[in-house]
């Protein structure tokens, strides 16, 4: 069956009530017929639900759909995107291992790699992710993990994932890609050679700014190690959140097409505006990696950045002048959101590192929602005109 059919038809087994939509399994544990069945299920001689830290029908349905979308052998859900990123690393890495990561990463991912995994003797080298040779040069004997985002948050830098996968060929290195901005609708890193795909499901997967969640999909051997870590440390996804997000996946393709169409139209309407230094969007010809974007991604995605002339003061004035657009740190919502990364999501990283990945004081990230594009264009143009 095609992907969109499966997104709708993959469903937890119906109960004796013959419900059409999947019910919520708000239960912490499951019952056994008798002590002997409990023993057999714990011993994995029989399959069956045990306890919702390990498995739950709503969570399992959500993971099955995500694996389907990402063409992955196996997967695991987490309470947040950050729990998924940390869980993936904690599951497969050990003391003495080395990580190579793109410097254009989500702020908290940089914090993990510089201040948390380092406590357990895991070292990390950051490279300019666009530069494939830099990854190859950074590889050491103990390098075990490559980590990147493409497109990156918020700089919208792309990494040629197929070329990056070639760098680790024949080596004992796991390539993990944070696919949050692209979603499986725009690109499937596993098809390009990645071993693990990680999502903050809080963003486009939920799609309406309601619940937090995360997921890791990929090669079974690695997912098993991550599952061991997660089962015993407990960063599980709640069944309610899984239920919400599994319903959301039914519309992921429709939503991503519309987010992308709106973002493209807005980027075109604002490009070359006299109040802006730059408009960045992967499917604008002016994007430095336009060719790669067209090759690697099906659509341009829902995120663009604007660099306002006049820096932070103008950002504040602009955020006040916008009428429809929300000012918030989230993205991937139906509602268009403006974020100022330098003072929020990326405020904890050094000025030098911000400059290196293009996070200027005047840069705003726009997560274009699903409102009518004419209303959005008018809101942005009016706000810019008022500056
Ligand atoms: C938001 C985000 C995360 C973190 O996800 P949470 O669900 O907020 O924990 C990780 N990576 C990227 C690219 C993000 O945008």
From TrEMBL:
Reaction(s) the record says it catalyses: O-succinyl-L-homoserine + hydrogen sulfide = L-homocysteine + succinate
Keyword field contains Amino-acid biosynthesis: yes
SUPFAM superfamilies: PLP-dependent transferases
Enzyme class: transferase
EC number: 2.5.1.-
PROSITE patterns (alphabetical): CYS_MET_METAB_PP (PS00868)
Pathway per the UniProt entry: Amino-acid biosynthesis; L-methionine biosynthesis via de novo pathway; L-homocysteine from O-succinyl-L-homoserine: step 1/1
GO molecular-function term, one example from the UniProt record: transferase activity, transferring alkyl or aryl (other than methyl) groups
Coiled coil feature spans: none
Stored Pfam families: Cys_Met_Meta_PP
GO CC annotations on file: cytoplasm
Annotated CDD domains: CGS_like (cd00614)
Keywords: Amino-acid biosynthesis, Aminotransferase, Methionine biosynthesis, Pyridoxal phosphate, Transferase
Cofactor: pyridoxal 5'-phosphate
Assembly and binders: Homotetramer.
Family under the similarity heading: Belongs to the trans-sulfuration enzymes family. MetZ subfamily.
Function as written in the Swiss-Prot or TrEMBL entry: Catalyzes the formation of L-homocysteine from O-succinyl-L-homoserine (OSHS) and hydrogen sulfide.
Record's protein name: O-succinylhomoserine sulfhydrylase
Organism: Sandaracinomonas limnophila
Lineage of source species: Bacteria, Pseudomonadati, Bacteroidota, Cytophagia, Cytophagales
